[in-house]
Each structure stands twice: as C-alpha cells, then as structure tokens.
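User: Could you walk me through two proteins back to back? I'd like the raw sequence and the structure tokens for each, with a short line separating them so I can tell where one ends and the next begins.

Assistant: Of course. Protein one, sequence then structure:
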Amino acid sequence: MNAGSAPQRTCIACRQTADRDELMRFVHRPDERPAIVPDVSKTLPGRGAWMHPDAKCLEKARTSAPFARAFRTKITASDLPELDTEPRQNG
C-alpha cells in the first residue's frame, strides 16, 4: 500500500473493495441484542465487518449469511441490526 492511499476493506454484501471511509463498520457483540451493532466511530473492539451504506448492499445483508461469513460464527435473525434501506434526506 502506498503511503498516501486510504486503507481498503471488502463489503460483506457485494464483495467489492472500497476505501474504509466509504463503508460502514459493524461489530459482533454476542452478549448484546442485537448482537451485531453499527460502529459509527469505527473504533469498537472486536472483529469488524464492512459494508456499503447503500440500499442494494443493506438489502442483501438482511440475510445472516454475509455476517456469518464475516464473523465466522452462526448468526440468527435476532442478532441482526435494524438496517434502514430507505434513502435519507439531508437537512
């Protein structure tokens, strides 16, 4: 990686790589419900999973498969966070 390039991560839904700043990070916290929580600050401890914040990837992530693959554990529907696939308006 070049000194000036941004860190790259892979989206768990579409499997495309992107700059870390373009993706949302989720962390698996088995002691909480939902067990998968968004990491807005991108600093929570633990294994992270990265995903594009667009409707297509969010819809694909509604199944547990992308999260189970990323966290290397069984994920149930109750573990999944509420994912808002509606476009947001600024202002």
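----
Protein two, same layout:
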Amino acid sequence: MIKHGKPVIDLSECVLCDICVELCPDVFIKNSSDYIEVSENVEQLLYDDHGNLINPSLLEDIKDAIKTCRGDCISWDEKTETKSV
C-alpha cells in the first residue's frame, strides 16, 4: 500500500482555474482571498488511524484534479508519503 499523504498546491503556479474545486470540493477549497487551499482534514477523509485507505473514490478524485490541473501546481506532499509491504 502507498499512503500518498495529502495534496499540496504551489500557489506561484496556480492559475485559479477552479477545476480542482469542481472535481474535488471536499479537498480543494477557495478561501476568502480567492486562493485555492487544501482542506486540513484531507488525511482523515482518506485514511483510518492505521493508514489504511478508507475512501478510494476520494483518492481518485484527487488524482483526477492533479491530472487536469491547468497550472500543473498540485502534487503529493512527499514528506508524508510512506510505503508499506
């Protein structure tokens, strides 16, 4: 299993197209300054306390948002990425 951690947005590359918000509104949120941010509870939405994936459809929505991002500014936080066998 690969735990992806959580997505991060490079705001310097973001073109504010809102595609990520449309595809995955539970994870990508437009804040009061009209910038996109990642929900603080995204890991709790994806994984249980043992790191097991509990919401595969949400994970696929995040992957779709990353693939379709016009600014190519969304990636996985490598600091939280873990691999287990």
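Residues 56-68 form the longest helix (13 residues).

Let me know if you want the two compared in more detail.
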